[in-house]
């Protein structure tokens, strides 16, 4: 690791210079007093884009979306333990998605930590559950090398969360050193015996090739489609996927359903399952009297490659092992049609199938409304689809920010339930401030609709008025048009499918962000 030493450079400046040298050029930030030397270094060191968030959960979620679309880590800048704590929910989602992020968390100077100041906390303890790597820089001279290791960790397959704690005295003390990039380890490749076992399992019917992280690029789906054509196996993906390339001209994969009864029914016909980048299917929650494992009891399940392996190499080896020479079956383009009628899931799905732009990025946090969207949009124009892999709500708007920053030439379509959007509504302000090309559709059913169904699923009995009131968002009504406009985002309210289609088209023509409140 090459290091440059500048006697007048402080630790904060060496940190910024090292991050840039390691390819990290975007920072999603919500800084405080302890991070001011890092903020000042941004003026002295060119090359780092700093995107301000009004809530730390927006910064961490944006870093997640940035990794998914850019394929490289951004950093976050967070204020002490409470600031990190505010970002934990979306760091949980990022960890489950396999997203690489470098968190820079400010800390009190050593002399101040001894005083147990009001903001003193156990930052390592807060960071560990959502981080694969946690480290505290002890001296200004060590900051650069520590930062290089953090970036190396973030880039380690499939992508990892690294948290670097920066005490303010190491940030302001001179003697910083700039470190060069460290190469992450190569992801493992499955051995040929395992590949041959997988090939044997996929032949002969009643077999499933289940795809997950890293297996859902356009190229890997093409390979999987050829394997399916050669063996007769079915193709499916996990319920939640960090990134899936789909649409006309690409191989279609259905998802394992979220509802547990539907998932058990769909998976019951498969006696043999090969996993590539995926886990064996399990339920999202435990339900009384229902199994948590969704596959049939006698199913033979073979993990060929997990998310940390070289998934592309694994699929390529499997293709060769089965002798997959035939072309894959791909989607045709869905024909244009007039879309009308009330705003219900099927009608909205038809609108999306028609209006998703070529090269669009769909960020899906539509929860209950969105369960009809996926099969209806197989034949939409080629696009990328991002799901919430960790289940903690409030992911969609921040991930849309990060995706738009990573891909300024592509339109982002964020499909968000109104309850979910309220967790990180501050992301709208960042969209406006940065002029991001995001169309946000808020499905305003004015309730936590998914939880009404969960009351039945867990056997909690018929809900009474107090229980239903806990799941309602209509006392008072949320006015999304006013909220969006107050944060600088143009907004409109629609009440039928034709109006939704027109509003999406208007958003496509806009230079900056727009919001559509779809009243259901």
From TrEMBL:
<dbReference type="InterPro" id="IPR012001">
    <property type="entry name" value="Thiamin_PyroP_enz_TPP-bd_dom"/>
</dbReference>
<feature type="domain" description="Thiamine pyrophosphate enzyme TPP-binding">
    <location>
        <begin position="380"/>
        <end position="517"/>
    </location>
</feature>
<dbReference type="InterPro" id="IPR000399">
    <property type="entry name" value="TPP-bd_CS"/>
</dbReference>
<dbReference type="Pfam" id="PF02776">
    <property type="entry name" value="TPP_enzyme_N"/>
</dbReference>
<dbReference type="Pfam" id="PF02775">
    <property type="entry name" value="TPP_enzyme_C"/>
</dbReference>
<protein>
    <submittedName>
        <fullName>Acetolactate synthase-1/2/3 large subunit</fullName>
    </submittedName>
</protein>
<dbReference type="InterPro" id="IPR029061">
    <property type="entry name" value="THDP-binding"/>
</dbReference>
<keyword id="KW-0786">Thiamine pyrophosphate</keyword>
<dbReference type="GO" id="GO:0003984">
    <property type="term" value="F:acetolactate synthase activity"/>
</dbReference>
<dbReference type="GO" id="GO:0044281">
    <property type="term" value="P:small molecule metabolic process"/>
</dbReference>
<comment type="similarity">
    <text>Belongs to the TPP enzyme family.</text>
</comment>
<dbReference type="GO" id="GO:0050660">
    <property type="term" value="F:flavin adenine dinucleotide binding"/>
</dbReference>
<dbReference type="InterPro" id="IPR011766">
    <property type="entry name" value="TPP_enzyme_TPP-bd"/>
</dbReference>
<dbReference type="GO" id="GO:0000287">
    <property type="term" value="F:magnesium ion binding"/>
</dbReference>
<dbReference type="GO" id="GO:0030976">
    <property type="term" value="F:thiamine pyrophosphate binding"/>
</dbReference>
<dbReference type="InterPro" id="IPR045229">
    <property type="entry name" value="TPP_enz"/>
</dbReference>
<keyword id="KW-0808">Transferase</keyword>
<feature type="domain" description="Thiamine pyrophosphate enzyme N-terminal TPP-binding">
    <location>
        <begin position="9"/>
        <end position="114"/>
    </location>
</feature>
């Amino acid at each position: 690791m090459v290091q440059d030493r500048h006697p007048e450079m402080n630790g904060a400046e060496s940190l910024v210079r090292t991050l840039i040298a390691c390819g990290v050029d975007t920072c999603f930030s919500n800084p405080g007093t302890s991070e001011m030397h890092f903020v000042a270094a941004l003026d002295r060191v060119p090359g780092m884009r700093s995107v301000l968030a009004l809530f730390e959960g927006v910064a961490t979620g944006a870093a997640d979306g940035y990794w998914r679309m850019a394929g490289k880590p951004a950093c976050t800048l967070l204020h002490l333990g409470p600031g990190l704590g505010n970002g934990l929910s979306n760091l949980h989602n990022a960890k489950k998605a396999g997203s690489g992020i470098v968190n820079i968390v400010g800390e009190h100077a050593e002399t101040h930590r001894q005083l147990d100041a009001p903001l003193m906390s156990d930052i390592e303890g807060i960071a560990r559950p959502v981080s694969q790597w946690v480290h505290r820089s002890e001296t200004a001279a060590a900051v650069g090398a520590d930062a290089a290791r953090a970036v190396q960790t973030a880039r380690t397959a499939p992508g990892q969360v690294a948290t670097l704690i920066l005490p303010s005295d190491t940030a302001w003390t001179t003697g910083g050193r700039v470190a060069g990039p460290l190469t992450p380890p190569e992801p493992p490749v499955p051995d040929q015996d395992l590949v041959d076992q997988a090939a044997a399992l996929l032949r002969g019917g009643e077999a499933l090739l289940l795809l997950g992280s890293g297996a859902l690029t356009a190229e890997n789906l093409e390979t999987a489609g050829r394997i399916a054509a050669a063996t007769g196996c079915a193709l499916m993906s996990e319920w939640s996927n960090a990134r899936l390339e789909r649409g006309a001209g690409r191989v279609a994969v259905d998802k394992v359903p979220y509802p547990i009864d539907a998932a058990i029914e769909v998976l019951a016909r498969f006696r043999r399952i090969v996993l590539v980048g995926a886990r064996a299917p399990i339920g999202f929650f435990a339900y009384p009297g229902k199994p948590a494992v969704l596959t049939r009891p006698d199913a033979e399940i073979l993990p060929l490659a997990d998310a940390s392996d070289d998934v592309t190499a694994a699929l390529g080896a499997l293709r060769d092992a089965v002798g997959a020479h035939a072309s894959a079956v791909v989607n045709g383009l869905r024909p244009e049609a007039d879309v009308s009628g009330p705003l219900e899931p099927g009608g909205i799905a038809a609108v999306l199938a028609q209006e998703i732009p070529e090269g669009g990025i769909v960020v899906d946090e539509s929860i209950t409304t969105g369960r009809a969207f996926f099969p209806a949009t197989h034949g939409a124009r080629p696009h990328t689809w991002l799901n919430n892999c960790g289940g903690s709500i409030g992911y969609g708007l921040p991930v849309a920010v990060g995706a738009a920053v990573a891909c300024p030439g592509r339109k982002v379509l964020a499909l968000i339930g109104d309850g979910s959007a309220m967790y990180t509504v501050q992301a709208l302000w960042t969209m406006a401030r940065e002029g991001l090309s995001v169309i946000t559709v808020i499905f305003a059913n004015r309730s936590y609709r998914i939880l009404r169904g969960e009351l039945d699923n867990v056997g909690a009995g018929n809900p009474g008025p107090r229980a239903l009131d806990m799941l309602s968002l209509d006392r008072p009504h949320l006015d999304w048009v006013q909220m969006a406009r107050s944060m600088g985002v143009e907004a409109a309210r629609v009440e039928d499918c034709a109006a939704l289609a027109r509003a999406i088209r208007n958003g496509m023509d806009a230079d900056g962000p727009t919001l559509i409140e779809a009243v259901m």
